[in-house]
């Protein structure tokens, strides 16, 4: 059985999983999920049934985006890319994990409030943005001296975090464009303006229906996966 990936196009967790799978050329059968009407094949797995969610060839379940990213790393023999994404140095691994953990556990909290300030009347959009900017400032400072968060090469930290910064930038595009975070804007733009992102990672699909033919992901792009 081909690995199955339940995904939702705009979900930042799903974006980072798809990005890693595609970068490492791991082929999966992609099932786009309508979050308001999740397919039974997904809900019957039990638990929260969030996306992304993957089942490997043996039917083993990977319920978290990070699990999927690490699974992808194990499938490939692209040694240089592995060393860049998840360096063998334990110090660098700790750095990658710390950045991701700050993003997932703290930044995401304020991002949600900034995005949906009307649902959180204890504060204003401005307040929430200011709280989120603590992380934004740190990222920008880090990227002032480096192309990527760990240095010259892209790591899992960049891939795991950029989809959330994309969401942050989209809440108020004018404000973000006019903000002082030039290094961060450049870094984000490198990801989101690349055809690999627009044509492969973010390609639109209709919601998956039980019984339909497999849609293989990544969608082959000439020259992209050499
Ligand atoms: N910790 C999970 C979070 C995934 C998550 O929260 N996904 C959202 C979409 S962005 C979701 O599935 N929401 C629907 C739900 O919770 O039922 C991961 O890393 O994969």
UniProtKB/TrEMBL annotation:
SUPFAM superfamilies: GST C-terminal domain-like, Thioredoxin-like
All copies of domain GST C-terminal, residue ranges: 89-219
One Pfam family hit: GST_N_3
One Gene Ontology molecular-function label: transferase activity
InterPro entries associated with the record: Glutathione-S-Trfase_C-like (IPR010987), Glutathione-S-Trfase_C_sf (IPR036282), Glutathione_S-Trfase (IPR040079), Glutathione_S-Trfase_N (IPR004045), GST_Omega/HSP26 (IPR050983), Thioredoxin-like_sf (IPR036249)
UniProt cross-references to PROSITE patterns, sorted A to Z: GLUTAREDOXIN_2, GST_CTER
GO cellular component: cytoplasm
Name of the molecule in the record: Glutathione S-transferase domain protein
């Amino acid at each position: 059985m081909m690995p199955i990936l339940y995904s939702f196009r705009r979900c930042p967790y799903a974006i980072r999983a798809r990005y890693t799978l595609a970068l490492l050329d791991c082929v999966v059968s992609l099932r786009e999920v309508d979050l308001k009407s999740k397919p039974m094949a997904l809900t019957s797995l039990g638990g929260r049934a969030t996306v992304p969610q993957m089942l490997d060839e043996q039917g083993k379940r990977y319920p978290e985006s990070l699990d999927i990213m690490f699974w992808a790393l194990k499938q490939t023999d692209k040694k240089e890319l592995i060393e860049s994404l998840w360096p063998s140095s334990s110090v660098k691994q700790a750095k990658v994990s710390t950045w991701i953990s700050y993003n997932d556990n703290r930044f995401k909290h304020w991002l949600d409030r900034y995005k949906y300030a009307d649902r959180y009347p204890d504060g204003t959009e401005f307040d929430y943005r200011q709280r989120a900017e603590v992380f934004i400032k740190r990222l920008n400072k880090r990227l002032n001296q480096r192309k990527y968060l760990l240095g010259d090469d892209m790591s899992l930290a960049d891939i795991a975090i950029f989809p959330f910064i994309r969401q942050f930038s989209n809440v108020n595009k004018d404000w973000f464009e006019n903000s002082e975070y030039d290094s961060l804007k450049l870094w984000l733009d490198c990801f989101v303006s690349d055809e690999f992102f627009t044509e492969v990672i973010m390609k639109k699909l209709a919601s998956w229906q039980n019984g339909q033919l497999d849609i293989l992901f990544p969608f082959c792009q000439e020259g992209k996966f050499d």
